[in-house]
Amino acid sequence: MPSKILEQNNFLTPLFYAASEGIIICNKKGQIVAINPMGNTIFGYEEGELVGQELEALLPDAIKTMHKSLRNAYFEKPEVRPMGLGKEFIAQKKSKEVFYVEVSISHMTIEDEFHVAAFVHDITKRKNVELQVVKQQQLLEYYADYAPAAIAMLDKDLTYLIASNRWKKTLGVTVNLEGKTIQETLPNFQKRWYEVFEQVLNGEKSGVQMDYIDRIDLSNIWIEWEAHPWYNSDNQISGIIIFAEDVTERVENEQKVKQYMQELILKNRELEDFAYVSSHDLQEPLRKIRAFGDRLSKKEKENLSPKGQDYINRMLNSAERMQQLITDLLRFSRISSKAKPFEQIDLNEVLRDVISDLEIAINESEAVIRTVELPTIKGDITQLRQLFQNLISNAIKFRKDDTTPQIRIDSSIDETKPNEVEISIADNGIGFDEKYNERIFQIFQRLEGRKYNGSGIGLAICKKITQRHGGDITASSQIGKGTTFTFTLRTDLEEE
What we know:
By secondary structure, the protein is of the alpha+beta class. It has helices at residues 4-8, 13-18, 37-43, 61-76, 124-146, 165-171, 182-185, 191-201, 248-299, 306-337, 347-357, 359-365, 381-397, 458-468; strands at residues 22-27, 32-35, 87-92, 98-110, 113-122, 150-155, 160-163, 209-214, 220-231, 237-246, 343-346, 368-371, 376-379, 406-412, 420-426, 473-478, 482-490. The protein contains 14 helices and 17 strands. It is rod-shaped, with a radius of gyration of 47 Å. The mean pLDDT is 81.
């Protein structure tokens, strides 16, 4: 039934019934004298059920006593509390369901009696969203603090929303950063960062950035960072999230390594120059030894005893081996120090030239060489000739006495490494024990002693040549069943 107050003040009736908020009118005793339809709907009551009850019937038991104190205090000193500045309460429906409301109040005099009108708005949905946002923010802060990277979350004005402990430690700050701008925490904030952040706010990723920054404590560090846009629930960009890492130690170590490498290159060059000069200077006395030894052998042969002639022959053989060793050392030292610039090289032409140079050895051994089409690469033509010549001449040299040398040259390109060619040179020679796989590429290593001519430098030269051309060389072998040397070369290498 309609309230007596509304019956007596019918000018209130249209507003009362049409209001989109709950309106509750109570007297100074705290009794409900009128409630509009929206109020009944909000609290789940039928019309007329609440009239005459205390206002606290709409509250959970736990806060009823507290609310009575607030209500009595208000009656003693009434003030208008407009919507927006209203007080939030936990209310209770007829079904005992608890929910959130915002209440604004105003007092009035009706029929010479003091009354209070409460305007009630159900804010449960908004409150749940706020709680969810808080929960998500707390969760995000938790993950940010325990993530391996320093994390900062900014709004569109570059103001901190979240700054992880690792971020604050990285920037050398201990105070709370929320509400401050990122410019305030970076003394040397760079102009180009504005451009990066603007791109991110347009939906792009910054990519990995590297910067040397000033910290609040005036120390300097290198940071590696990356920025991404973050989106709100409406899929709109709401700001920037930055992931950063203090890489000062790594950068300093890289700089040290780079410096050591430069020093090593310089020392290596000096050693190569020394080896070249020393080897070159040794040639002249060796030539004299051989020249005078030849004269003794030819002109004084009759005046020498058989033992003397044997000594002369040994001396000449040793001088010849020494000269060959020095020549090979010169080649080895010149691979880097006296190398030619890279150019386009047709490996088929290189192979034809090498086979032509080895024609006598090939004919004497009756060696059979089979090959496939080889690619064109960038390289040093002199060194590539040396590479093929050393490997093919080895295949001929280390042949079995009763077997015609069979040499097979193959080439292939792995689809996963399109800029690298793999070439193999296989023979049916004497082979070797694979436990010496690494040793054979070291300088002066000779597995067969002096049974075969050579200085023990040839395969070391091959390894150095392949490495200069962006590749490497390996060997597989079985004693008595031959050896396969496999090496790789970059096809597009630009020499530094």
